[in-house]
Design goal:
Structural class: mainly alpha
Strand order of the largest sheet: 4-3-5
Radius of gyration: 18 Å
Strand content: 5-15%
Number of domains: 1
Shape: globular
Number of helices: 9
Largest sheet: 3 strands, antiparallel
Number of strands: 5
Helix content: 55-70%
């Protein structure tokens, strides 16, 4: 039902709705608390995506494809690790898996909140590596509002997990920090190995196949297979691993 409503609200594509139904069913199979946490993350992320959408589109029309409903690939990239780890925690009775699931979702939240709030409230982004100015929306760029937003997203997931009794208060800090590390990892991968394209006509970096000037762009650097969705998936793995490692006595 949640997937259908999200499809009707154009937050998910048809493939995204099908994937969300599977990911949601996996989370529900792990327990209603896991499903509630996932739905809360999705609703908050979708709301932030819509917040100031016109202003964000104006800033990123040269660098990012036009915002569209989330696809199946995007759903799995952000929620797949969470759902599988939650199942392992419940059905497999693996204590570490619960922390991995929460760290993965915390990382996804940090990445989403940082991106959306950074685009809306941040000024000229700076490279996470060298501090040089970057185009708004280009992967690897960071802003202070985005960094604060990312930390807030990670903390929100950690706090909700404790409130839903999915984690102990003692592990809240580890889950939040893990999410922040996932977000940082996302930016580092975006700045180094994520595929980037170049518009020969405008001599500008972009992530669009066709630049806003109408010119087809060419692959310029990074690994061709390392897309933004792949980087997002890696961020959830980083968050999951960090949550487990940070909780080791």
């Amino acid at each position: 039902m949640v997937a259908v409503l999200a499809r009707r609200a154009h937050a998910l594509s048809t493939s995204g709705a099908l994937a969300a139904a599977v990911v949601g069913a996996m989370s529900a199979a792990a327990g209603w608390r896991w499903a509630v946490l996932l739905i809360g993350w999705f609703v908050a992320s979708s709301a932030l995506t819509r917040l100031g959408a016109a202003a964000k589109l104006a800033r990123t029309q040269a660098t990012l494809p036009a915002a569209a409903a989330r696809t199946a690939t995007q759903v799995w990239a952000n929620g797949g690790v969470y759902a599988m780890a939650a199942l392992a925690a419940t059905l497999g009775d693996e204590p570490w898996a619960a922390l991995a699931a929460l760290g993965a979702l915390s990382g996804a939240a940090a990445d989403t909140w940082a991106t959306e709030l950074g685009l809306l409230f941040g000024r000229a982004p700076r490279s996470i590596l060298g501090g040089g100015a970057m185009e708004p929306g280009l992967s690897g760029g960071v802003t202070w509002p985005g960094s604060i937003g990312g930390a807030a997203g990670a903390a929100a997931v950690a706090g909700a997990a404790v409130a839903l009794q999915l984690a102990s208060p003692a592990s809240m800090a580890a889950i939040a920090v893990a999410g922040i590390l996932g977000g940082v990892g996302d930016s580092l991968l975006g700045a180094t190995v994520q595929a980037k394209r170049r518009c020969a006509r405008c001599d500008r970096w972009t992530e669009r196949a066709t630049h806003d000037c109408g010119t087809a762009t060419d692959h310029g650097r990074g690994w061709r297979w390392m897309t933004n969705d792949t980087v997002n998936l890696c961020a959830t793995f980083i968050g999951a691993a960090a949550a487990v490692l940070l909780s080791i006595p």
